[in-house]
Every structure is written in C-alpha cells, then in structure tokens.
C-alpha cells in the first residue's frame, strides 16, 4: 500500500496539480494539508472522478486537512485532537483505511517566536504527543502523516545556522519531536535514507527550489506494529517544479502486504 502526505497549499487553486499527481503516481491513500477551503468548498466531485473517496475537515482561508483513498472508504475515527487547544483550527483528521489507522495532521507553524503563535504551537504539540501515545498503546498499525513544521536535525535544513531562531527549528520544538518519536514511532523517510540530505519544502522566494535550499518538514511516522512492513519511502521532488505547484512536494511510503490479515 502506498501512503502519501502532501501539503497542497490551497486545494482549489492547486487542483490541476493535485489531480495530475494522483493520476501519474497513483497513491493508495493521501493525507492533504492546507486545504484553505471551508467544508462546503472542498472539490469532492473532482476527487471522486479521479477515483478517490475522501473525508475532510475544512476551514475558510486557512489550515484544513483531508484523507483520500482509492483502496476503500475512509472510516473516520476522529477530527481534531482530544481537548484541542483551539477547535476553530482544522488541523487533525483520522480514519481507518484498509487495515491501517491514518492520522493526518498540520502542526502549527509557530512564528514569530517568541509569542502567542509559538505558545500555541507548543500546546498543540503536547496534545499531539499525548494522543500519539494513546495510539501506540492500542497496538494497531498507525501512520502519523503530515506537515509537522519541524526540521528534526541539522541534516533536515539548508544552512541550519540561519534557522536558529525560527519556530520550525527551535530547540524546544525539536525536543518535542524527539519525544514523540521516542514513543516508538519510526521516521519512515529517515529510516530508508539515513545519511542523505532530503527536503520536502522549498520556499517560493530566492529560487529556493532551483538552489535546493529546502527543508524536511513533512513526515510519515509508523507505529511499532506497522514499521516492519516499510519497504520504501521517497519524495516526489519533481512535482515541486511543476507549474503553479505547492511549495511542498508529496512524500510517500510503500508498505508490504499485511500477512497476518485474513
């Protein structure tokens, strides 16, 4: 099963890019972030015509997350984190798909730091960590996928010395991500490519994509019961270079079939 995460940076404005990518790469399940569309403006008909069923948690102008599937109807289990610190922001959605629990998230950016936005990011992160532990404790196969707005290590950022004061690279943010992973999650992309410099985001300014001045902020984390099925993990980097593309590239994993299922 091929599971992807993709921050589309406005689903209606980028719909041709999204549909082209779905047609060419054929992921089985996709977590989308930054829909930037209210619930009634999600392009459900176009997604369905492309062969995907969808659930989504929209928000006008900002945020928004969705799960698409072509391997069975996503059975929604949750939208929003337990005790979400701000329920007006659409940042989390969760569904069972083909024997795997898919958790799609868009963690707050947190800039400027320090300030209220950074404080909110850290509060949201703490709620995520608590819920992630509950998911681990179930023992079921789970994927935490999305735009985490965290560069975990210096290898995950172009010229890390320039990002020391940024909310995406702050020591307390990186420490929170490390605490999350230490629960038993497997960072899929880093597991397959332990020593490579791999980015998932390139700013629109200063020819960042052309210079490969990127960040790795989009992650897929696998629970202990799912990690042994990991076969591959990659970034569809070329999609970032398509006309009118998002500033993120899709990231995906390939999972071996579950031999224990009947």
TrEMBL record:
<dbReference type="GO" id="GO:0006281">
    <property type="term" value="P:DNA repair"/>
</dbReference>
<keyword id="KW-0378">Hydrolase</keyword>
<feature type="active site" description="Proton donor/acceptor">
    <location>
        <position position="147"/>
    </location>
</feature>
<dbReference type="InterPro" id="IPR004808">
    <property type="entry name" value="AP_endonuc_1"/>
</dbReference>
<feature type="domain" description="Endonuclease/exonuclease/phosphatase">
    <location>
        <begin position="4"/>
        <end position="248"/>
    </location>
</feature>
<feature type="site" description="Interaction with DNA substrate">
    <location>
        <position position="248"/>
    </location>
</feature>
<dbReference type="InterPro" id="IPR036691">
    <property type="entry name" value="Endo/exonu/phosph_ase_sf"/>
</dbReference>
<dbReference type="InterPro" id="IPR020847">
    <property type="entry name" value="AP_endonuclease_F1_BS"/>
</dbReference>
<feature type="site" description="Transition state stabilizer">
    <location>
        <position position="149"/>
    </location>
</feature>
<feature type="binding site">
    <location>
        <position position="34"/>
    </location>
    <ligand>
        <name>Mg(2+)</name>
    </ligand>
</feature>
<feature type="binding site">
    <location>
        <position position="247"/>
    </location>
    <ligand>
        <name>Mg(2+)</name>
    </ligand>
</feature>
<feature type="active site">
    <location>
        <position position="106"/>
    </location>
</feature>
<protein>
    <submittedName>
        <fullName>Exodeoxyribonuclease III</fullName>
        <ecNumber>3.1.11.2</ecNumber>
    </submittedName>
</protein>
<dbReference type="GO" id="GO:0008311">
    <property type="term" value="F:double-stranded DNA 3'-5' DNA exonuclease activity"/>
</dbReference>
<dbReference type="GO" id="GO:0046872">
    <property type="term" value="F:metal ion binding"/>
</dbReference>
<dbReference type="Pfam" id="PF03372">
    <property type="entry name" value="Exo_endo_phos"/>
</dbReference>
<feature type="binding site">
    <location>
        <position position="147"/>
    </location>
    <ligand>
        <name>Mg(2+)</name>
    </ligand>
</feature>
<feature type="binding site">
    <location>
        <position position="7"/>
    </location>
    <ligand>
        <name>Mg(2+)</name>
    </ligand>
</feature>
<keyword id="KW-0464">Manganese</keyword>
<keyword id="KW-0479">Metal-binding</keyword>
<feature type="binding site">
    <location>
        <position position="248"/>
    </location>
    <ligand>
        <name>Mg(2+)</name>
    </ligand>
</feature>
<dbReference type="InterPro" id="IPR037493">
    <property type="entry name" value="ExoIII-like"/>
</dbReference>
<dbReference type="GO" id="GO:0004519">
    <property type="term" value="F:endonuclease activity"/>
</dbReference>
<feature type="active site" description="Proton acceptor">
    <location>
        <position position="248"/>
    </location>
</feature>
<comment type="similarity">
    <text>Belongs to the DNA repair enzymes AP/ExoA family.</text>
</comment>
<keyword id="KW-0460">Magnesium</keyword>
<dbReference type="InterPro" id="IPR005135">
    <property type="entry name" value="Endo/exonuclease/phosphatase"/>
</dbReference>
<feature type="binding site">
    <location>
        <position position="149"/>
    </location>
    <ligand>
        <name>Mg(2+)</name>
    </ligand>
</feature>
<feature type="site" description="Important for catalytic activity">
    <location>
        <position position="218"/>
    </location>
</feature>
<dbReference type="GO" id="GO:0003677">
    <property type="term" value="F:DNA binding"/>
</dbReference>
């Amino acid at each position: 099963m091929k599971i992807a995460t993709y921050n589309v940076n406005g689903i209606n404005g980028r719909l041709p890019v999204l549909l082209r990518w779905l047609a060419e790469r054929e992921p089985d399940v996709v977590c989308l972030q930054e829909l930037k569309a209210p619930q009634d403006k999600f392009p459900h008909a176009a997604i369905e015509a492309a062969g995907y069923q969808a659930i989504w948690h929209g928000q006008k102008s900002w945020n928004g997350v969705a799960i698409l599937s072509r391997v069975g109807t996503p059975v929604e289990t949750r939208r929003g984190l337990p005790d979400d610190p701000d329920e007006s922001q659409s940042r989390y959605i969760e569904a069972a798909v083909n024997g795997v629990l898919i958790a799609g998230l868009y963690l707050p950016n947190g800039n400027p730091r320090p300030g209220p936005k950074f404080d909110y990011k850290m509060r949201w992160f703490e709620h995520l960590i608590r819920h992630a532990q509950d998911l681990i404790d179930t023992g079921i196969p789970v994927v935490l996928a999305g735009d985490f707005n965290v560069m975990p290590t210096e290898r995950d950022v172009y010229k890390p010395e320039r990002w020391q004061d940024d909310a995406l690279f702050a020591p307390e943010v990186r420490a929170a991500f490390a605490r999350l992973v230490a629960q038993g999650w497997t960072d899929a992309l880093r597991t397959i490519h332990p020593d490579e410099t791999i980015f998932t985001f390139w700013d629109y300014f200063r020819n960042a994509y052309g210079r490969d001045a990127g960040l790795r902020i989009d992650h897929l984390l696998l629970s202990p019961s799912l990690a042994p099925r990991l076969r591959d993990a990659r970034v569809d980097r070329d999609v970032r270079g398509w006309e009118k593309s998002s500033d993120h590239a899709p990231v995906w994993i390939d999972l071996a079939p579950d031999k224990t299922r009947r």
